[in-house]
Design goal:
The complex is a heterodimer. In chain A, 18% of the residues lie in helices and 33% in strands. Chain A is built from five helices and 15 strands. A seven-stranded antiparallel β-sheet of chain A has the order 4-3-7-1-2-6-5. A six-stranded mixed β-sheet of chain A has the order 10-9-8-11-12-15, sandwiched between helices. Chain A has a two-stranded antiparallel sheet with strand order 13-14. Chain B contains nine helices and 14 strands. Chain B is globular, with a radius of gyration of 21 Å. Classes of the chains: A alpha/beta, B alpha/beta. Chains A and B meet through strand 1 and helix 5 of A and strand 5, strand 6 and helix 7 of B.
Chain lengths: 255, 309
């Protein structure tokens, strides 16, 4: 983990709601894999106080590309303070030949870096965009990717088949929609496959992360074995068979 | 150097800057990023006798120039935490102070346990903001009877003036003024009002005032805590009478400022203007509005005029 300054070299708007920032970063911060992220600060002032999670979508020679909502304004040559890389890479199995990626009401940006590796080794991948995720520009996605757009989970007609043949499944949804979506997905998987093995089905948890280093204990995810682990160090992807979804659902509901 | 002594055991702080409870983790997690040996000591996250689970519901609410945190103070209980982290505490380059929370009898049991361990240099008691002065005195006195370790009492901001004398009478060897105060804010995601501890630079004037009120009244050292984000903030606490300061949420927002503040009070701080190098006076990355010109900028390089044709 490092704290370094990066420079925004280029800003490109890829849709009405999404812009890509190309950041010149120092070598230690180029060594990252899909699923890892940075905590970024764009101002020396303290408003906003906490850093923001920035997820790289692509790596170039000396730059990384992150996606940010267009409601945030950035300028070329702007200096950004980056803490990271943080978190664990998505546990993409070497033997996984068919991937199912599901974005519920969230951009699929988080999957893009992992997709580069998966498609490079000729894995087949299907991306399902549900709800607001359908607004993501398809031209920004790899051409080798199969994309399905559904209004909501129930209108994703082929989900049983997709869940059945996938070697690994990764799902993302923004809090507080994440846990209910993952519970529904886990139920579908258990019904379709009868048994959901370990390392098959992953949900991505993105709670607010003040420290990024596992110190503040604010981003804990509850596991079935009673452990509570920081999403910033042990995640953001968690095996849904290990997560205590009921308890995490109670957390989301403010119980 | 600051020494906090019970007469039998002494906590020696080679630098007056401490990592506060709740911000730096249980066992030097920030050692991956920062040179913690520049600090005087590190206080662990709160630890209780029995395990505590994380809070349900929203745990982080962003505020203007601050944050509200409601973690529930999760920890595995003192025995499990000791098993997990004792090795790191033992090899820490700086003293480790354990922050304890709980009912008086639980605190006393924890203190008795720690008295038999060598890894912890001192105990910091988190005094609950619902305690009266009498209950505070009793709590501290109960713990005092069970340990020889130096005892710090971290007081709640709003009640610190009322509780300070009681904590000192109970046997505290130093006071920490103050714990992050409780507040309530609306979570933008759920729309609910959430209660928790509040952090931000704007706490500093509140805490400095209380330190200034208490230092004339007490003979034990006071350690200032609250809203420190810059060496000048720490200087304000020292001028108010604090003997040391604790840094908390600045490590989340701008970790590099922890080192800047620690270095500013490490004995290497320059006190003369002449002969100073720019980065020895002000940390890199500091906002321009806080930087003052201490040495004149070098003259621009001479560029000869092109010859006339």
């Amino acid at each position: 983990m490092h704290q370094r300054q990066a420079i925004i070299e280029r800003i490109r708007r890829i849709s009405a709601g999404v812009q890509r920032l190309e950041l010149a970063v120092e070598p230690p911060q180029q060594a990252l894999s899909g699923g890892q992220f940075f905590l970024a600060r764009t101002t020396a002032a303290y408003d906003p106080y906490l850093r923001e999670a920035w997820l790289p979508v692509a790596l170039n020679d000396k730059t990384i590309i992150v996606e940010r909502p267009t409601r945030y304004q950035y300028l070329p040559n702007q200096v950004v303070d980056l803490l990271g890389p943080l978190g664990r890479p998505f546990p993409l199995r070497d033997s996984a030949r068919t991937l199912l990626l599901i974005a519920y009401e969230a951009t699929p940006s988080i999957f893009l870096l992992m997709l580069q590796s998966a498609l490079a080794r000729n894995s087949a991948a299907t991306l399902v965009l549900i709800g607001q995720a359908r607004q993501y520009p398809l031209e920004a996605l790899p051409s080798a990717l199969e994309v399905i757009r559904a209004e909501h989970h129930e209108t994703w007609a082929e989900r049983a088949q997709h869940i059945a043949w996938a070697d690994q499944i990764f799902a993302v949804a923004p809090p507080p929609y994440d846990v209910p979506a993952y519970m529904r997905l886990l139920e579908d998987a258990q019904r379709v496959r009868h048994a959901v093995s370990a390392e098959l089905l992953y949900g991505i948890f993105q709670p607010p992360m003040p420290c990024g280093i596992g110190a503040c204990q604010a981003c804990l995810v509850r596991l079935q074995n009673g452990d509570e682990v920081p999403a910033c160090t042990d995640g953001m992807a968690f095996d849904l068979t290990r997560v205590n979804l009921l308890q995490n659902l109670a957390d989301s509901a403010g119980a | 150097m600051l020494e906090i002594t019970t007469g039998k055991m002494t906590l020696r702080l080679s630098r007056p800057v401490i990592g506060a409870s709740g911000a730096f983790g249980f066992a030097g997690e920030y050692g991956k990023l920062l040179d913690l040996s520049l600090l005087g000591a590190l206080v662990t996250n709160p630890i209780s006798l029995k395990a505590r689970r994380a809070a349900s519901g929203t745990r982080v609410v962003p505020l203007d120039s601050g944050v509200l945190i409601h973690t529930g103070l999760p920890n595995g209980g003192i025995h499990k935490m000791h098993r997990q982290h004792a090795a790191k505490w033992r090899t820490s380059p700086i003293p480790v102070i354990m922050h304890l929370i709980g009912a008086p009898e639980d605190l006393a049991e924890c203190a008795a346990f720690l008295d038999q361990q060598a890894e912890i240099a001192a105990i910091e008691l988190g005094i609950n903001d619902t305690l009266t002065a009498r209950e505070t005195r009793t709590t501290v006195a109960t713990v005092r009877t069970r340990t020889q370790l130096p005892l710090l009492a971290k007081l709640p901001l709003y009640q610190a003036v009322n509780l300070a004398a009681a904590a000192a009478d109970g046997g505290a060897d130093a006071l920490v003024i103050a714990a992050p105060p409780r507040g309530t804010a609306r979570d933008p995601l759920s729309g609910q009002l959430i209660g928790g501890r509040v952090y931000g630079a704007w706490l500093k004037p509140l805490a400095v005032r209380v330190v200034g009120q208490l230092t004339p009244r007490l003979s034990i050292p006071i350690i200032g805590c609250g809203g420190i984000h810059h060496p000048d903030d720490a200087r304000d606490f020292f001028e108010a009478g604090a003997r040391a300061v604790q840094l908390d949420s600045v490590v989340w927002a701008r970790p590099e400022m922890v080192i800047a503040i620690a270095k500013a009070f490490s004995g290497g701080e320059l006190t003369r203007m002449s002969g100073a190098l720019a980065d020895e006076w002000r940390p890199l990355g500091e906002p321009a509005e806080r930087r003052t010109t201490l040495i004149p900028a070098p003259p621009p390089p001479h560029v000869p005029s092109p010859p006339e044709i």
